[in-house]
Amino acid sequence: MDANMRALGASSKLVLKGEHQSIHQTASNVVEMGFDSSSDNSDAFNLNAAAHPINSAVEIPTIHVSDDAGSQDGSDEDGDEWAIESIFEDSFPEMEDNHLYDGTPNTCTYEEAMQYRQELRDVGPEVFIQRTIDAKTITAKKLLTAFGMKPPEYLEMCDDDAYYSLLSLAISRELSKRVKLPAYNSVDDAVELIKKSSNIIVLTGAGISTSLGIPDFRSAGTGLYSKLAHLDLNDPQEVFDISKFRENPKIFYSVARDLITDEPRTTPTHAFIALLQQKGKLLTNYSQNIDNIEATAGILPEKLVQCHGSFATASCIECRYQVPGTTIYPSIRAEKIPQCPRCIERLQTSKTSHPMKRKRSSNGQKKKKKRFDGVSDSDSEGTYDIPEPGVMKPDITFFGEPLPDRFSDRLTNHDKDKVDLVIVIGTSLKVAPVSEVVPFLPPHIPQMYISREPVSHVNFDVDMLGDCDVVVAELCERAGWELKHEMIPKDQKIEVETVEGFRSRHRFTVVK
Ligand SMILES: [Zn+2]
């Protein structure tokens, strides 16, 4: 084994962070794996080429991973995670498994890929490397494709050992994935699982609300962000940035009306989750959505975790006074900034006793000091302003705000040992904290996926592709359950086709 291969062996030993991994860890697993942090006690992983002497030709951006997610100090955890994802995706172009199958030159076929993945599991990374790269039975460049990684163009003219560090990453990443359970493949397998399970976790994302015209709110380039061009922001995420909100709440309130529904509507997918609850099968619905449609659909508060908060309530950013979310809907619809009624009341009281009170600086700096604590601030540039009440903000989690505690509490202390089936609907599972749920749960629990397109970073047992409203209608039909919803056309006919080359991947289309 030469030095390069030793390096490869060493870093591929750095493996699974499975159950002991904090679910609060901001880093998405894909980034975290494959980098030997043991030699470097700092909490920032360095993906720079310099840290990988094995291949100085690879230019990989440095990624700093903060591990203080979930802390209460208002660190920009979501912002970091966002950056990590996009850097990862730019640097390591992934191949979806269906590209493996189509016979692109110098890529493994789907069958070869499955064999290599199995062999890696069976013999471990060291022996696997001996049998493949050391024995020269396959190039590192081609072997990359077996793990869903596309050889990057910038390495095209390099020797094969230029691919070793990427291969090491690919292997580590593969080993950290849950292994698909071979027993479940068909749509009928999925139906049987749903029928026999009694503690189902349903993970939902923006895809389940888009049929009501609610934009997908975190996807850059699509959905809500594309509507923000006229706002002249450096980054569309600034709409959901807590310090920007404190600086200028107008930005948020100019788009917020698009995030609320005009009338209490639900989708067939929401009705499906409610039906699971009605049949005593719903353990928890973890939703990434902030539209609060789950509540409209009748999901009980104790069975619902809105991972990014929701419009269900709103709070004053100064005094934390909380009101039902609908209280501020008229302001949201009028694109006006709602003000805190309690602040207004206190102001009116204090006006009569202290007519010339100094306004606290509102320059967006973090100041924990209460505005109306009776102490006049000396940092407001000496001007005397008319005091203003605090601004009301919907209790959705902004970038820079901690995630709701209920998420990790419920998952670790309640759900983990009870769950018997996981159904992921309408999310690509790339945004924490929901992305951390699947790797956190026991791997023998069946997991199924319902979305328009498959994902390659998670191995589900059954993939059901298509419009989620259509997929759930077909599942209920086959289960003999009546899914009542006005958006399901009478006599709807759905065709299910198994995707060529995949036993467990099925595409649902409406034919009538
Ligand atoms: Zn207030």
UniProtKB/TrEMBL annotation:
The active site is at H308. InterPro entries: DHS-like_NAD/FAD-binding_dom, NAD-dep_sirtuin_deacylases, Sirtuin, Sirtuin_cat_small_dom_sf, Ssirtuin_cat_dom. Pfam families: SIR2. Residues 180-482 form the Deacetylase sirtuin-type domain. It comes from Glarea lozoyensis (strain ATCC 20868 / MF5171). Residues 354-371 have a biased composition (Basic residues). PROSITE patterns: SIRTUIN. GO terms for molecular function: histone H3K14 deacetylase activity, NAD-dependent; histone H3K4 deacetylase activity, NAD-dependent; histone H3K9 deacetylase activity, NAD-dependent; histone H4K16 deacetylase activity, NAD-dependent; metal ion binding; NAD+ binding. Residues 347-387 are annotated as: Disordered. One of its GO terms (cellular component) is rDNA heterochromatin. GO terms for biological process: pericentric heterochromatin formation; silent mating-type cassette heterochromatin formation; siRNA-independent facultative heterochromatin formation; subtelomeric heterochromatin formation. This is DHS-like NAD/FAD-binding protein. Transmembrane segments: none annotated. Keywords: Metal-binding, NAD, Transferase, Zinc. Zn(2+) binds at C316, C319, C340, C343. Belongs to the sirtuin family. Class I subfamily. Its cofactor is Zn(2+).
